């Protein structure tokens, strides 16, 4: 029984908070409406607008959190990042649809909040008066100058007074039930008005895509620089040495066959190292196994060459587009390298499943856990590769283990 | 000895042809494409073939697939596969018919002409020749080979690379007799009983490829 009272009291309290949140509405409305034309004339309006705008957003955010808690789903904040400086900032806030939607919400919250609180409290008051009507009649013997409303209504009839008791019980039930509906109504309204519009969502997505595209372009430019450097300092230099040795060997071939033989041996060794370097480089750019057999074959090859036993669960029987295949491969390879190097695991489980429009990849190890994206470049590299495709990474790695990486990679079917 | 070559790069194909001719092989066909490879292998039945894994038209593992297809029709057809890189998966697929007479080498190894020719002859004779890189990968990661002594592991490695007992003895500077002792010991440890089929060297390599 106790919790019911607690709940009723809490809901009434929430109605009160809702009303209080709505209260600044006329004030802020006036400030904003006055400050916009005023700022055309004098600078002061901008300051007023700035203050009013900030307060408005604070209130809207409080309501977003309350509504999110009540509805059990997050309500995203629609505000774009605004430029520095008072004037550009004010201009951006004025032109932001979110500002005006916030204001519309606050004005309606003003009315709804007060109405809700009045309904909530009024019902309780009426319920208490009805329930105690017979008692009131007995306790207030003579007609006073100020009778409770109920007694004004019933007169002083005993029968009617007793009849009011069940009505009071009904009112009490209503008063107990109604607040949660009022609150959820307020939350729904807030959710409708305060969440980003589809246009805002779209533009936020464009911003995010622009950022990830820039990151992807940067990453591939860095990769090209690395390849250029490796070729230039590695294989190219070795081949120059090979030519030099062969040239010298040609010169001394007749005069000093022993030296010529040594030079040729050196040339052969250099050529061998150049080949090894080129092979490693090729593998780093695009693993040949991936080209030959696709993601499934390349994952099998990864599992075979792992120094820890790997259990594979592959549910993929088509070739994906080359960029997706490559991203998925490197993400798997990196996850497995992490598990092998850092986790101290004795078993790795890898699951790849094709869901048509996205690919899910999971790498699980029974190691010591404690992995998070902030530490080490491996996980960040995975995140960057995935984000270029609008994919996602979820890390579960409590200290003491185990570690599970769950990744999703969108791919057209 | 009759040899078939399948290699799409003209420089390497001509080089191989010239080299093999110089060492007394007779090059019966030199293909630059994988589309007719299986038919050519089955039709000519060369004493040994040198085949690139990656061939046109698909430029993936055309060569390997053709060889596996041909060996199902002609079991034990001796084939040496060449590749720019070595993959255990491919080594395993090549050996899966357990017939022997296969080799899988990095293209780099052609540079060591004498050893390459030896490997080719070993394959023609029905032995199994794995690239040292495949073998060392396997030896590094397979803990079940811990039952072997270091010396036995050395012998197994050289055996997998296709060396004869004499060559292993020379390499490790021990007598041929102790080589065969080591081989018998490791056959016993890997659970390979003496049998008549004579492919125990192949089976020893398979034993850890398949572990």
UniProtKB/TrEMBL annotation, chain A:
Note the InterPro entries from the entry. Answer: HATPase_C_sf (IPR036890), HATPase_dom (IPR003594), Put_sensor_dom (IPR025828), Sensor_HK_TwoCompSys (IPR050482), Sig_transdc_His_kin_sub3_dim/P (IPR011712)
* The entry's keywords: ATP-binding, Kinase, Membrane, Nucleotide-binding, Phosphoprotein, Transferase, Transmembrane, Transmembrane helix, Two-component regulatory system
Name the Enzyme Commission number(s) assigned to this protein. 2.7.13.3
State what protein this is by name.
histidine kinase
Membrane-crossing ranges are 12-32, 38-56, 110-139, 159-178
Concerning SUPFAM superfamilies, the annotation shows: ATPase domain of HSP90 chaperone/DNA topoisomerase II/histidine kinase
An example Gene Ontology molecular-function term:
kinase activity
Q: Which of the seven top EC classes does this enzyme belong to?
A: transferase
Domain (Histidine kinase/HSP90-like ATPase): give its ranges: 323-413
Q: Which reaction(s) does its UniProt entry say it catalyses?
A: ATP + protein L-histidine = ADP + protein N-phospho-L-histidine
UniProtKB/TrEMBL annotation, chain B:
According to the lineage, what is the superkingdom? Bacteria
UniProt keywords, alphabetically: DNA-binding, Phosphoprotein, Transcription, Transcription regulation
Q: Fetch the PROSITE patterns from UniProt.
A: HTH_LUXR_1 (PS00622), HTH_LUXR_2 (PS50043), RESPONSE_REGULATORY (PS50110)
Q: Is Nucleotidyltransferase a UniProt keyword of this protein? A: no
Tell me the ranges covered by the HTH luxR-type domain, including all copies.
141-211
- Positions carrying 4-aspartylphosphate are 52
Q: Which residues form the Response regulatory domain?
A: 2-122
Q: Return the protein name.
A: LuxR C-terminal-related transcriptional regulator
> What is the organism field in this record?
Hamadaea flava
Q: What is the lineage of its organism?
A: Bacteria, Bacillati, Actinomycetota, Actinomycetes, Micromonosporales
